[in-house]
Amino acid sequence: METNKEKKVEKETNLNSTKNSKKEYFNLILLIMIIVIPLLIFFIYILAFDEKEQLDLEKIRNEKQEQQLEIENINNKEKERSIEMTKIDNKEKELLDIEKMTSKVEKFINENLISNSNDKITIKESSEESGLYKIVITTSTGQDVETYITKDGKLFFDRTINIEEAIKKREATNNETPIDQETTKNDKPVVELFVMSHCPYGTQIEKGILPVLETLGDKIHFELKFCDYAMHKEKEMDEQLRQYCINSEEPTKFINYLQCFLEDDKSDECLNTTKIDISKLNTCVAATDKKYKITENFGDKSTWKGNFPTFNIHKEDVDKYGVGGSPTLIINGTTAGSGRDAKSLLATICDRFDNPPEECSTELSSATPSPGFGFNTTDSKDSASCN
Fold first, then answer.
1. Model confidence over 220-266: pLDDT tens digits?
2. Distance between CA 229 and CA 264 in Å, rounded?
3. Does the pTM exceed 0.70?
4. How far apart are CA 147 and CA 138, in angstroms?
């Protein structure tokens, strides 16, 4: 009996021990949960806080970068504005300088180069070109002439020479077979006059040679030809095409047309006055323009000679004789120097006859035609040209 009782007690003791162990284990688990869960929450919070802080710092850095870029943009704009203001100031200064020089040129020409008070020039336009001021003047006859003055206002040029073009022409001339001087005289001289239709010095010699052509008639072979570039742009190209076609299609009317045109640069009136066949003229102009690419080359500045569009109808002869500008007089294949009055031109041409005809003894005017349009005369013996 005692043994069973002891066993029972031992059993209860073991049961209580097991219960106590379980209770202690549960309490331990609970304690761990109480400690670990807050710690876990704390660490999660810390991590979330750090991430937020990192995001905030990144945002702040981005904002600072944006502010810095904005400041740089503002500084760049200020620099650009400053540069632009400097350009404007320089441009205004240059405009003032050009205005000052144009006034100086106008006064100088009117007071020193023009003898007739009625022949005053005016300034049409001005610009900077190749380190000089280019000033386009308009004569009393309405002609535009390009002149140049140094920026210090000390040197004035009524014409310039394009060095590269001059060298090319010189080389082309040197490559030509020299013409035997014995051939410069013959029974019927060939007279070729190269001009630009709106060059004031070209129109000057044209007015001088008209009485010579009327006097000598078919005793000479005369041809009016054009330089291979047009200094007076579209209006000159149009007129030269017109004159070339009139001379080609209706040569008997050409001198009359030219006489009329030289009076006042009114081609439409002259076409009507001389009864030119407009249909023939337009057909010829269109065909010639296409053949020599006059309009096409005008639109393509890579084909220009310096600052001027090309006009290649007589280019072969221009290169052959080394024609450098308007006017250039060629007689029997050689360049001839002459005054621009009718008397001088008649003497120069008659000197190229083997046996001068009696018409060479005709007394023509020794008065020099004025440059430009209109049949006025001038006391000046100037030999200026457009080149």
1. 999 999 999 999 889 999 999 999 999 999 999 999 999 999 999 99
2. 23
3. no
4. 11
